[in-house]
Amino acid sequence: QVQLVESGGGLVQAGGSLRLSCAASGPTFSFSTTAWFRQAPGKEREFVAAIIPAFTWGGGGTYFADSVKGRFTISRENAKNPVYLQMDSLRPEDTAIYYCAAGWSGRRIGVENEYTYWGQGTQVTVSV
Questions:
Q1: pLDDT, tens digit (0-9, with 9 covering 90-100), for 57-113
Q2: What residues does 30 pair with on adjacent strands?
Q3: How far is CA 109 from the centre of its chain?
Q4: Sign of dihedral through CA atoms 108, 110, 112, 117?
Q5: Which of 7, 24, 40, 90 has its CA 20 to 30 A from that of 101?
Q6: Contact 32/2 with Cβ under 8 angstroms?
Q7: φ, ψ for residue 55, nearest 5 deg
Q8: Taking a C-beta distance cutoff of 8 angstroms, is the pair 21, 8 a contact?
Q9: Which residue from 22, 23, 20, 24 is spatially nearest to 8, judged by alpha carbons?
Q10: Measured between alpha carbons, how far is 119 from 38 in angstroms, rounded to an integer?
Q11: Dihedral (Cα; 51, 56, 58, 64), 10-degree rounding
């Protein structure tokens, strides 16, 4: 069983930066593709970014939603923990609860139903 815990959220002014962390426990996390999703008030949860470990099939890679390309980066320090989401040039529309997800099915990387494990989320608020 994989358990995920997000941290690093908070209140920041527009144009500022935050770094979110996703820490995990469980024997298979080191091999797991990990993604970030977010949910703004009154909206559906949406894909933000994902990272496939370099030591898995295809040599790994990172994927981003169009809305965050060029502003957000996703990384992990080593094969175990954690996964980071570096968010720069933040905008008020980035305000949301950010969730870490793992246990990807191997199919549609940007679809929440393709992930088995979820964290509780961390709030990010960007003020004007």
A1: 667 899 999 999 999 999 987 767 799 999 999 999 999 999 999 989 989 999 999
A2: none
A3: 12
A4: positive
A5: 90
A6: yes
A7: -90, 10
A8: yes
A9: 20
A10: 11
A11: 0
